[in-house]
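From the pipeline queue, job 12 of 40. The input is one protein chain; the requested action is below.

Action: predict structure.
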Amino acid sequence: MLYRDNTVLGRPVSVITFGGAALSGEGGGYGFGDMDEAGAEKLLKFAWEKGVNLFDTAPIYGFGLSEERMGKYLPKEAMIISKAGVDWHSTRRVNMSNDPKIVEKMLLESLKRLKRERLDLYMIHWPDKNVDIRRAIEVLVKYQEKSAIHHLGLCNTNLEDLKKAQEVGVITSLQSELNVLNTKPFDDLGETWKNFLSMGWGTFDKGILTGRVVEGRKYEASDARSWAPWWNKKDVQIKIEKVQKLKLILDDYHLSLSEFCLIHNLHHKGISTCLVGAKTPEDLSQVLQAAQKTLPLESLQEILKRFHS
């Protein structure tokens, strides 16, 4: 396992972070297909044994099921990230809000599900145009002072919200989408993100960049790709065609799609860690092996130039 030196969380961080949305599709909410209890236990323990030490989750992943499973099967030494802001009503209709009362409620519920007195990193999941980010951070700072949170972070943020949040508390981590097909969220932050523990989600763009997403593929009802508005068939087809082009280019360099995606994020962009939502120990093992791969800068630049031409 490769690690990044890290002064933020106090110890090195694995360059692969386990993405918790893979654990709990049958629970509903944001997830990627069924996984039984035994499968979740096996996968989490395998990740930890192989050196993954950072685990990312959120309440909306399985409506709490992802957090519950991490709470059951991960040792206390594992570093866990969770988030506030994507809540749901009793009918399970999703409610996105950074209202301070909701943020506080979600934090306390996450601590209970994860069976922890303190979370290593707690983040605001998405910006909320109706709530000043400073109000949410004030709540989290209060719990940080009570030692219920170690570090604070922002997901999917922008420079304006980041600046406001820093007026109230110390922000140590940023998390946004990052992959070969989409670098805009990080690009929009300029050089700022390099001062933080930087985390990229969507490393394989919900499976598209693994080559497993093909035209006409069907998904389980418990897989968000079967119903989510962000899984637009037209957009997905365009991406599939781009990936086919990329794969042909990579064949010239004897690289797999997974290897190049990780090289792109870790070595080209230089982020701290990539979130990957593997569904099986075999898949995760392949990802961990791919993360060991390196590529001369000249070759990487050649690939990107050919891909974007």
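Job complete. The chain has one domain: 3-308.
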